[in-house]
Amino acid sequence: MPWSTVLRVSIAPRIGLLLIIWLLAYRDSVTELVTPGYWDSVAGQSSSLLVWTAPAVAACGAWEGMRVRQARTLQGAPARTFTGVSLAVLSPTLVLGVLAVTLSLGMLLPQAAGSPNGTTVAILALELLVVAVHIAVGYVLGLTLPRLLAVPVALVGSFVWMAYPAAMNVFWVRQLNGTNLAECCQLDQVAAPRSIVAPAVASIGLLAAAWLVTVRGRRLRPLAPVVLTVAVAISAWIAHPLGYSAAESRSTASRTCSTTHPQVCLWPEQRDSTQDITTWATDAHRRLTAAGVTTTAQLAPRSTTPTSDEVRALLALSALPKDIPACAQTGEWPGSQAYGPLSVWLTTTAGADPRTVASRYAPPEVDVAQRVLEQTPHDQRVWFQQNVETLTRCDKQPVLDAGRL
């Protein structure tokens, strides 16, 4: 059949126009979740748009299957094989799926830097596999279900499978449809291989089950649910250790660290800002040391292009305990009242813009810290040392008014 005829009778070009408009409308909501400059994050976030792409192509596949059944193309002794006929009628839908995946990634490309790696290629391959499976399942539904049910069932079923697992507390289920990669990645993370392999196995199992349903003769059809069940079980076993996350820790071998105090360690995506980050961290360290504050010996910003205030705040807050005391889990913890004022005082002392700091904390906490900053350096040091101690115990009240020390 000529391509012009295939395109004319296919529903894919019509649905494709709506799908592209829909994907473009979601661009901003996805873009803001990307870690700028990091390919793993760009590719991972593009997978979130499968929630819309998969149902659209599944509905197209169901329509084409229904049209083939009505035309009785596969009955009798056709000159072409089932696969040949199916690929011919599904080709526009397959092209639509590839274009949608390409567009999903292309919208986020301005936030990527450098060259894509093997993980990016694997994520894109998974997205294409998921799209192909939804087309195939939709096509089989079109061949088997009544004409009034095929398209609605394919559309709604595909959407439920792609969207609903994200709301489930059974974490491994979230990993099976290919969209949970949107939970990846911060700069210190990479996509876990399990988060790619698990949905790939589930997709292959679903594809195999769909194929068994279409096999002529009834001997192999009962194997379809068996194959699907085995594939899902294997996928669940692969995904279970991941829990909610699709990421794992990134190897620190790719980081470079300075010889300054504190030592500043940066990922390749941050290296264009090395000089600024090091200068800000060194100055903040000098200010805090002069105030009698001990900070972390190694600083590793998580933003691709951190600002001066972010770097100074990160170093300053490293002086506070990371965990609440055990006693706070069973009783009162008076020291919790000191956390805000201490944070404001530390970040301001480190050289952060006071207006930026004030916008991030409650006004009463800012007022307490501002009154302390008006005291002598000695009194400020005493105030900090006495109040920071209350963050690690429950039997001591903070003294937030510097005049009462």
From TrEMBL:
<keyword id="KW-0812">Transmembrane</keyword>
<feature type="transmembrane region" description="Helical">
    <location>
        <begin position="121"/>
        <end position="141"/>
    </location>
</feature>
<protein>
    <recommendedName>
        <fullName>DUF7224 domain-containing protein</fullName>
    </recommendedName>
</protein>
<feature type="transmembrane region" description="Helical">
    <location>
        <begin position="43"/>
        <end position="63"/>
    </location>
</feature>
<feature type="transmembrane region" description="Helical">
    <location>
        <begin position="226"/>
        <end position="247"/>
    </location>
</feature>
<feature type="transmembrane region" description="Helical">
    <location>
        <begin position="196"/>
        <end position="214"/>
    </location>
</feature>
<feature type="transmembrane region" description="Helical">
    <location>
        <begin position="148"/>
        <end position="167"/>
    </location>
</feature>
<keyword id="KW-0472">Membrane</keyword>
<feature type="transmembrane region" description="Helical">
    <location>
        <begin position="84"/>
        <end position="109"/>
    </location>
</feature>
<dbReference type="Pfam" id="PF23866">
    <property type="entry name" value="DUF7224"/>
</dbReference>
<dbReference type="InterPro" id="IPR055648">
    <property type="entry name" value="DUF7224"/>
</dbReference>
<feature type="domain" description="DUF7224">
    <location>
        <begin position="264"/>
        <end position="394"/>
    </location>
</feature>
<keyword id="KW-1133">Transmembrane helix</keyword>
